[in-house]
Amino acid sequence: MFKNVAELRDYRNLVKAALAKEKLRIVVCGGAGCVSKGANKVYEKFLSIMKEKNIEFSVVLEKENAKDVRLKKSGCHGFCEMGPLVRIEPTDWLYVKVKEEDCEEIVEKTVLKGECVERLCYTENGKTYVEQKQVPFYKLQTKLSLFNCDKIDATNIDEYLANDGYTALEKAPFEMNSEDIVNEISESGLRGRGGGGFPAGRKWSQVARQKNFPKYVVCNGDEGDPGAFMDRSVMEDDPHRMLEGMIVAGIATGASEGYIYVRAEYPVAVAKLKNAIKQATEYGLLGENILGSNFSFTIKISRGAGAFVCGEGSALTASIEGKRGMPRVKPPRTVEHGLFDKPTVLNNVETFANVPLIIVNGASWYKNYGTEKSSGTKAFALTGNVKNTGLIEVPMGTTLREIIFDIGGGMRDGKKFKAVQIGGPSGGCLTEEHLDLPLDFDSLKKVGAIIGSGGLVVMDESTCMVEVARFFMNFTQNESCGKCVPCREGTKRMLEILERIVEGKGQDGDIELLEELGEMISAMALCGLGKTAAGPVLSTIKYFRNEYEAHIYEKRCPAGECQKLKTITIDKDLCKGCSKCARLCPVGAINGKIKEPFEIDQSKCIKCGSCLSACPFKAIKEN
Amino acid sequence: MENKIDFTVLDQAISEFGTEKKALIAILQRAQEVYRYLPAEIFPYIAEKLDIPEAGIYGVATFYENFSLEKKGKYVIKICDGTACHVRKSTAILDAMRKELGLSESKKTTDDFIFTVETVSCLGACSSAPAIMVNDEIYPTMTPDSAVELLKSIKEKENV
Question: Which pLDDT belongs to residue A33?
């Protein structure tokens, strides 16, 4: 328990010195992607091999008697596609797709002889990359909010301290007053990373101004956008940085209590955050009179129960209060009447994670990154039909082309790029013409998309855009809370129209009707969920109207994805006339004579596909 | 046969989370974990302890996806249908699992209460798409075949 800043500094120096004594570190990625691919088994294998060989090593940061060799499980390294990942520090060698069988060789060569196992290094286009920082996937990234994720053991606060964690707490409560902090954040240009891009400094100053106590700091960890997982990474891999950001927000606004709302699907994040709060409290970084200052702050965790709409501010606070998570009419805004009807600072995980850096390094340092109106970096979850899927962080203003083709390594299976869905179900799709568009809050808004929480789902030519629009509308319709009519009824009608289009029952006028409904819902819905629900539909109509038309007027799916628009035929040369398909067909659409080629009556066929899988000679084809 | 409801679970949860109204969701979450659903009997019990109308609790219980008023299987399998999984063809995995277990859109739990198969909007395991979650464990890059294999191995373990 640190009573003052000097004690914290002394302790930090102690753990820093201990960290410096570790001469070689084997860092096994413990991110969700690598763990699901077997990283834990790799870690265990290292453990048993090194014990067997009587190598002196430690598995935690030893404050005294630090060993030369350290085996460590860190958070997500980001390069999930190549997992399980193992990095050797300080040489920065990166081993990819490491299996249990590889551990022996790594210990023999790398640990005992200091040699690199080159066959495990990443190769691209025939070139082998030994050091992680040279790998194209990493080379173009700038990690600020995710900086620690692939380095520290998140279960141990000492690791965060040794990497300059909680330095903002040496400064904020002592050398700065509330106004200084708010000014610094405003000056830095930090904008909310949760989707809207509202200036964080302005929000903080609005709460600081309120005279109604107690005030609250709420962290939105309800990362519900399908295809986004950067907040999960921060919560699981660097939880203290987020806590530190929340504490600073508390000092700036005069709040005394914080809540972290974590979605139900992230049980690991909840466990890691609980542990982090416990450690920070034990060290006196949370609780009464933090570091001897007159500032007190506590943080509680509230677990979501599975409702996407709870990512919306007023729905989220209602859920923390134990109610149905339904948004309310605004104003009054959350900054005045938020949690328990009190003034509340509500920011998302990534936003808070940026705060300590700004306090420690200053606003002008932060503004070196990104563009004029969108400073700093943004984490993106790169997924879909791209070669290198994973978690990345780039300066604002980086182009889609750099992200997809340089960092992402281009399209998977040599297919052609078609579109990228940005901002999840609230966003829109961008096409080839937008590849050189700088990604920042304002330029995306101009083309009808949003950064959202930062999900980037890359789609190739085999993806049907109408089906994508139907998929998102189905999601939003499911998640609509039902409070306001435009969203509840409007999304339902839009979904019905989209469903009939992909089933080949689209009618003349459907596209216009979708546009009309979409614009109506955007204008009239109560909350952000409804206001942005039509985004994917409107943007796919804008850029892929011809696909909609092909479905409606030609009853044809250009991407060949829509099941009901496929034509199923029997290859005459392969059919042996066994009649198995005809017997299986539920609508009697297949006829023919035994031992002669059978035929499908297209007017009767319902494209159920049961004949396809049944044919012993693979004579039935679909296009 | 209906088992008797063990109310001590609720008592523990109430003493841990308190009787303020904001504790309701945490208490229901505990009940869902232990009973694997929210039995009708617990509604009046919680209503009295927390001084919330039963209908209010019912409203919360039906609002959130994670609460179920029907008993779920021992293994709750969530097939991710998030964007990343969807574009990597997660629907085929759902179909294969339903077929293997004789389940459907409307029938989500097997009669022996071993399996519940449902979809989830996103597991946040997008880099391992298509992914599924069995209870709290994530299985990455699944195929219809590996999903059926997984079911078989669970069945073997459970002797069904």
Answer: 82
CATH architecture assignment, domain A20-133: 3-Layer(aba) Sandwich (3.40)
Task: With a cut of 60, say whether residue B2 has pLDDT above it.
Answer: no
CATH 3.40.30.10 holds for B75-158: yes
Q: State the Cα–Cα distance between residues A159 and A406, nearest whole angstrom.
A: 32
Strands A57-58 and A69-74: parallel
Closest in A232, A264, A307 to B63, CB measured: A307
- Residue B8, CA distances (Å) to A62, A192, A613, B4, B12 in order: 43, 44, 52, 12, 6
- The answer to whether A381 contacts B126, with C-beta atoms less than 8 Å apart, is yes
Give the residue extent of every domain in chain A.
Answer: 20-133, 157-365, 377-460, 465-553, 566-622
Which residues, 6+ apart, have CB-to-CB distance to A29 below 8 Å? A39, A73, A74, A75, A76, A77, A83, A84, A85, A86, A87, A150
CA distance A498 to A493: 9
State the Cα–Cα distance between residues A373 and A364, nearest whole angstrom. Answer: 14
Q: Using only C-alpha atoms, what is the Rg of chain B?
A: 18
Closest Cα of chain A to B29: distance in Å?
Answer: 8
Which one-letter amino acid corresponds to residue A194? G
A534 residue type, one letter: A
Scanning A37-96 for CB atoms below 8 A from B yields 37, 80-81, 83
Give percent of chain A above pLDDT 90: 85
Spatial neighbors of A372 by CB under 8 A, at least 6 apart, are none
pLDDT of residue A60: 94
Is A377-460 CATH 3.10.20.600?
Answer: yes
Q: Does residue A36 belong to the interface with chain B, where contact is any CB pair within 8 Å?
A: yes
Q: Which residues contact A164 (CB under 8 A, 6 or more apart)?
A: A12, A360
Is residue A613's pLDDT more than 90?
Answer: no
Chain B closest-CA separation from residue A518 CA (Å): 21
Task: Return the H-helix or E-strand segment holding A381.
Answer: strand A377-384
Closest chain B residue by Cα to residue A302: B26
pTM of the model: 0.93
State the ipTM, two decimals: 0.90
CB B101 within 8 A of CB B115: yes
Please state the CATH superfamily assignment of the domain spanning residues A157-365 in this structure.
NADH-ubiquinone oxidoreductase 51kDa subunit (3.40.50.11540)
If you count residue pairs, one on A and one on B, with CB atoms under 8 Å apart, how many are there?
A: 134
Taking alpha carbons only, the member of A228, A238, A168 closest to residue A194 is A228
Q: State the angle between helix axes of A200-209 and A239-253 in degrees (0 to 180), rounded to the nearest 10.
A: 40
The answer to whether B147 and B97 are in contact (CB under 8 A) is yes
Give the phi and the psi of residue B143 in degrees, each rounded to 5. -130, 165
Residue A425 · residue A399 · CB < 8 Å? no
Mean pLDDT of A144-152: 95
Could you read off the pLDDT of B68-108 as tens digits, one per residue? 999 999 999 999 988 888 878 898 899 999 999 999 999 99
Count CB neighbours of A207 within 10 A: 25
